[in-house]
């Protein structure tokens, strides 16, 4: 019986390291979900690599009994890309934060997404710099009052899903730390997608930014605010499905009562080749304090950078044969001295 | 072709010659120089070249800023430099003459393209009157040749038949100049004809025009009476073997391929374009059939990250850049160091600081590679000393990286990168067997079946290289200080101190295994030692040779390893009355040697963006070594 046939459990993906996040941190829930998911989908610990940058969230690899690399601030996609190019046999996950992935590492994120390298990127968005103890981040709402912005932050926040879609990412999703079932579903899709998968996870930092996502996480609120995107289904939400999303003539989207929407309710289709509709959906919610779409915004197939790179190597070998060192050195003009 | 009738002209035998082609950036001087170099190599001369071009791709035509030049030194003897002062200058326009005339040997020969000496061009070059008839040229042998006009005349038929227009025809003037100089030096042009036909295979009319211009240049020399002599430089007595010409960047690329072949590891090359390193990327991108993955990253940080990932994945991982890019890589190089993964970081140095002099040479990044990282982050640093040596040092860098599991910095520079020399091809099966330098770890290394990724080899202090994908060896790497053995995060004060010392100790282990230093001292009685590193080797060799011929007893040592320094150095340096260290920087190696050996090492420095001239080194070493005694 080969190792591939043994059914693994969550425990097989759990390292012996003591988890050191603050009690109550949303990262715990994400960790548990990822560990269970990997067992469920039949991933192999030795074939799985977690690469992270720097931040509370980026401690993630230490807690996984897989291969792992805790790199430097913002650069996880760069290390993961080198690994993905050289090792098509691995499942590579990136864990990054809103500061790590969108501020210092924003450039790498954009290029990784447009290249469509075979990686899964999990962006833990807590709208704060956790590890450095509470400065505002690129996703903090305008006017956020934190240690470095006592009179309110001045820069407009970025919407990670819009950014990913703008970079033409091929798999873009959003979920919530404590919604185990929803998160699992979205992560499973990421795991199965070939190319870069980008998943924004709303994560509560109960120390420096508690409650930022209450509208979507708390009983009594979430039923009103979660707009669950389900492929093939009209986009409606609310306890009774009483609200709906419609498209305006200018391409933007708007929330109206289901009654008013009539047959104009947008039917969700993440496989649309153009990202226009997905982008309009991502603009629906200016911040996660009101109705906000969660789920898979986009899932399309496109050539994968590292696959194509390896194909070029194979094609060159086909055309010129395996490289021969003597032939290479003697190429060009040579002359003999006796 | 009238090769034979040249015999009527007196042919003067020379031991060596220095020729410089200079013209506007658009005049094709680099190509002309390259072709003349190949012809010269095939004639069996030893040679060295010095291309020099502006940073602007097309600086305004006719201006001093736009002048591009190519110098070639060739000889029937062993030579080490592209030559100090040219014997012959080919100036395609007034700006080229203005910029290069002063470099010429007294009485040297100048060929000017008179057609370019228009009022406007003279003005652009800063001439108030024409140097051709105001006495400027009295001390030189001036040959006024209407190169553009001759080219157009030679291509009259081509233009008439519509094969090419006048502008295209004019562009063949560099081939006319090449033909003329080839005739002067009795260089056969058949190889260049073949090369042209090859290059313009899809445009036969251009091939034909260029070949016609080339032959016209040759015939012009042969049939006009303007040139009284031709010259010949006989083949040099080089060591037996098979030779080719090679530039530093090409040798570097081939060295990396050789390291891949000899280690059995596929090569991963991640890089971001920058002058003068980009040609390594271009060269390797053509060699995918060797299993090379070339990755043009979004910036140097990403390039550095990608090689860390590739090294983790088990490939021979290499990146290259120049000073500004190395600065960006610094933080990730620290990560590479602390995670103890093997990789090579090449710095093809250029004039700094900041953007500096992108197309010029300098040795000013030594400290950046030695110390330019946060914390105590020692890595081995080695340097290539000639274009062909780039091949050997690429292999040496890979050897150290793979044996000791560490990033290795390899220094080249703009001069080595672009200049060429004849290279005796090595026997491939005698190249270092890099596959013996490492083995991937596939089994647990603890008695309880566990795996400790920082449990070291006691000889090399290398940690195990266990690749993702290996069952049972799952482990986590990272930039946080780690506990010896387990590699777990550790903030323990004593552990950090011990780890820091271990990382220096590993450098010492490398030093202890180095072959003895090679000190060149033919008399065995020298009391002055010249110490150098990198691309100054050629000029230093030539200068010491000259000093010895004047009776000075001088020894010379050239360092390949800058970190670790060779353990014999303190004793060696202390055994000379004077130690001189010439560098194309403000004294970086000298400062290091003083700190490490407590010897009063004397510096000689120049940072003009050009390699040292050997005459200037002769004067400097003479003054520092003996002048102050007198
Ligand atoms: C080059 C560099 N700059 C700054 C830091 C300090 N730093 C560490 S984590 C961090 C921000 C982390 O925020 P985020 O990515 O949102 O992660 P979180 O802690 O919130 O999970 C900063 C600024 C660093 N480690 N390295
Ligand atoms: S600071 Fe915030 S994000 Fe970091 S571990 Fe604590 S709760 Fe979690
Ligand atoms: Mg954060």
What is the H level of CATH, i.e. the homologous superfamily of the largest domain in chain B? Pyruvate-ferredoxin oxidoreductase, PFOR, domain III
Which sequence of SSEs, written as H and E, runs from N to C of chain A?
Answer: HEEHEHHEHEHEHHEEEEHHEHHE
Termini gap of chain A: 63 Å
Low-confidence stretches of chain A: none
Shape of chain A: globular
State the CATH architecture of one domain in chain A.
3-Layer(aba) Sandwich
Number of strand segments of chain A: 12
> What would the CATH topology of one domain in chain A be?
Rossmann fold
Poorly predicted spans of chain B: 1-7
Task: Kindly state the percentage of residues in helix of chain A.
Answer: 25-40%
- Let me know the average pLDDT of chain A: 96
Strand order of the largest sheet of chain A: 2-1-3-4-6-5-11-7
Care to describe what's here?
The complex is a heterodimer of chains A (338) and B (630). Chain A is of the alpha/beta class and 338 residues long. Chain A has twelve helices and twelve strands. In chain A, a hairpin with a 5-residue loop joins strand 9 and strand 10. Chain B is of the alpha/beta class. Chain B is globular, with a radius of gyration of 27 Å. The longest helix of chain B is centred in the middle third of the chain and has 20 residues. Helix content of chain B is 36%, strand content 20%. Chain B has 21 helices and 23 strands. The N and C termini of chain B lie far apart (60 Å). Iron/sulfur cluster binds next to loops of chain A.
Structure keywords:
heterodimer, A: 338 residues, alpha/beta, Rossmann fold, 8-stranded mixed β-sheet, 3-stranded antiparallel β-sheet, 12 helices, globular, B: 630 residues, Pyruvate-ferredoxin Oxidoreductase, domain 3, 3 domains, 7-stranded mixed β-sheet, 6-stranded mixed β-sheet, binds thiamine diphosphate, binds iron/sulfur cluster, binds magnesium ion
